[in-house]
Amino acid sequence: MKSVLRKPLQMEPVVFHTLNTLFMLLVVTVTLYPFLHTMAISFNDGGDSLKGGIYVWPHEWTLQNYKAVFVSGTIYHAAFISVSRTVLSTILGVFLTTMLAYTLAQPQYIFRKWISIIFILTMYFNAGLIPNYFLIKDLGLLNSFWVYILPGLVSAFNLIIIRTYIRSLPAGLVESAKIDGAGEFRIFWNIIFPLCVPVLATIALFIAVGAWNSWFDTFLYASSDIKLSTLQYEMMKLMGSTMSTNNDPSMLAGANTNQTRAMVTPASIRAAITIVTALPILLVYPFLQRYFVVGLNLGSVKE
User: Fold this and answer.
1) What are the alphabetically sorted keywords of the record (predicted)?
2) 238 vs 254: CA distance, rounded Å
């Protein structure tokens, strides 16, 4: 009787893991298919793409779509601006947010509660687009590179995550350092900051992705200066021009040769633009993945 009852119980883990594996494979397929499909179109002949039937592998390989994207000389300078703003925003944002979070995590700081409330209120209330524009104008940041950096240096969401993570660290570390004569900045830089690497990698990824993908701030605050144009803004302009061509390749920017006109279409250009803008983040993410889940969980559930 015992052997009869034991077999069904032994089959339960097998059935669960099998169904779980099949479900996760389905999720992976649904997640990866749009990206693989877009990549296949970007490497496929534009005229052949109009026929359809392209799934995850190109029928007729070509690089003309990418050549049409990079034919403009402004793309390279715009890419430099995007990389510069992403790097500076990430470094300064992580450092300053962590420093503020360390301050607000100290129980002896009497204003920590009120300052935290002020930051939290910014997550629920926003003045709106027009007041923000006039604020940027009054600060003298219009048509300035620093308009990409200064307004978003400290995020309330990132601040809460880092502050919660710092509170989870042993208080004895700070107390022992103070007994040894260490100042607040030395404690922050030599003890707290290195211990926050997992959550900081998560925050760095948040900031980097947001800065890299941003284009609307360029449109609002720096569109009149071509030297401040970002890669995403140039891609948006190019994508807008392709959507207005009504599938006429001869109207595309950069389609000034017979070979390009025969191989480039708005759909293929949009696919190439999507891959170009997404590729840098895809290359960076694997190096931060091991910190991503661990840092976010530790910074969000411990109090």
Assistant:
1) Cell membrane, Membrane, Transmembrane, Transmembrane helix, Transport
2) 10
CATH superfamily of 63-303: MetI-like (1.10.3720.10)
Residue 235, CA distances (Å) to 167, 178, 242, 245 in order? 42, 52, 10, 16
Residue 44 dihedral angles phi and psi, to the nearest 5°: -100, 155
- Answer yes or no: are the C-beta atoms of 205 and 294 closer than 8 Å: no
Global pTM reads: 0.77
Q: How many CA atoms lie within 13 A of 68 on its CB side?
A: 37
Per-domain boundaries in the chain:
63-303
Structure tokens at 35: 């990206």
DSSP secondary structure string for all residues of 86-149: HHHHHHHHHHHHHHHHHHHT-TT-TTHHHHHHHHHHTTT----HHHHHHHHHHTT-TT-GGGGT
* Contact indicator for 153, 98 with CB cutoff of 8 Å: no
Q: Angle at the Cα of 147 (from 141 to 150), degrees rounded to 5?
A: 105
